[in-house]
Amino acid sequence: MNYRHAFHAGNFADVVKHVCLVALLRGLTRKDSAWFYLDTHAGAGDYDLTATPAQKTGEYRDGIARLLSAPGPLPAALADYLGVIRPLLGDGDSPRRYPGSPLIAAALGRPQDRLVACELNPLEFEALQAACGGAVHVQRTDGYQALKALLPPRERRGLTLIDPPYERPDEFTRLAGELVAAHRRFATGVYALWYPLKDEAPVAGLKRALKAAGLRRLLVTELRLTPLPTGGMLHGCGVLVLNPPWGFAEQMKAALPALARILSPDTGTATVDWLVPE
Ligand code: SAM
Fold first, then answer.
1. Mean pLDDT, the chain, as a whole number?
2. Domain tally, the chain
């Protein structure tokens, strides 16, 4: 487990993922009844963009910093995402910190909602505990085990974010099996699965496996900085959403193409398509 999210915090992929996260939780918040949030691969929770890892890669400059300096008006989902994270970016004209998914979810949690974040790396886990305070129940457990242990939740409604580091060669294959099994335990839950676009073959395999398993209401959102992979480099990312709340697809159709043009003005594109509809 060498992956450290501090090198990538606030990059274009985080922005795409977290725009989706905010819109999905907003969808669940339309009803007063409590929701459950499970973050299977939570990271450190809060990242210092002035520290060495973020400064070394500078990835946030082509992500959150670009969006912050984009001229308005922005599509509603982008404006909403910025409104949620802005208080967590630190003072000053440019962002000094960037919140991870557990802190963003906590910002949207109400007293009745319940949030659990899992992180396996001991150092990231310690940082996550410190970042979350009491707002999120933090566990040092395998996120895949947590799917088995915590679903279905007693609230009977909720969002599970699955955001692994893709260090293992079999991660895509494993994900398909884990998602299908989780859906069997909690069929009405909303699931969001982030994946990198480097090599298209494993992504196509994941989509084929989920379709073959008979899952329905599967929406695929993808954003590409450049149209084609260039030598196995990360050129885009996707968020696959199972059971998206009402209106989510339309919000993303309005937001992601605009975000792609902001992040990559000459070659950025985005698509929002049902892999399997109702
Ligand atoms: N979701 C976070 C966010 O959006 O801010 C970023 C998470 S980062 C991409 C993936 C994290 O998963 C890393 O911090 C890594 O240590 C952790 N991790 C790796 N394998 C894990 C596992 N099996 N269970 C839980 N966490 C794991």
1. 96
2. 1
State the pLDDT at residue 91.
84
Residue 59's φ and ψ, nearest 5 degrees, are -65, -30
Summarize the confidence of residues 264-275 as an average pLDDT.
96
pTM over 0.85: yes
Q: How remote is the CA of residue 1 from the centroid of ligand 1, in Å?
A: 9
The whole-angstrom distance between residue 57's C-alpha and the CA centroid of its chain comes to 20
Looking at the CA of residue 143, tell me the nearest atom of ligand 1. 24
Q: What's the pLDDT score for residue 230?
A: 61
Q: What one-letter code names the amino acid at 78?
A: L
Nearest CA to ligand 1 atom 5: 100
Closest residue by Cα to atom 16, ligand 1, is 121
> Residue with the nearest Cα to atom 9 of ligand 1?
165
- For residue 72, what pLDDT is reported? 87
The closest of 130, 154, 113, 112 to 42, measured between CA atoms, is 130
Work out the burial of residue 241: count CB atoms within 10 Å of its CB; fewer than 13 is exposed, 13-18 middle, 19 or more buried.
Answer: buried
Residue nearest to atom 8 of ligand 1 (CA): 43
Q: Which range marks the domain in which residue 13 is found?
A: 5-276
3-class secondary structure per residue, 215-235: CCCEEEEEEECCCCCCCCCCC
CB 25 within 8 A of CB 242: no
Name the residue of 22, 25, 120 to mutate for ligand 1: max ligand atoms within 8 A of Cβ: 120
Shortest-distance atom of ligand 1 to CA 9: 5
Pocket of ligand 1 (CB under 6 A): 1, 3, 5, 14, 17, 41-43, 100-101, 118-121, 124, 142-144, 163-165
Residues tagged active-site: 163
Return the sign of the alpha-carbon dihedral for residues 253, 254, 259, 260: positive
CATH of the domain at 95: 3.40.50.150
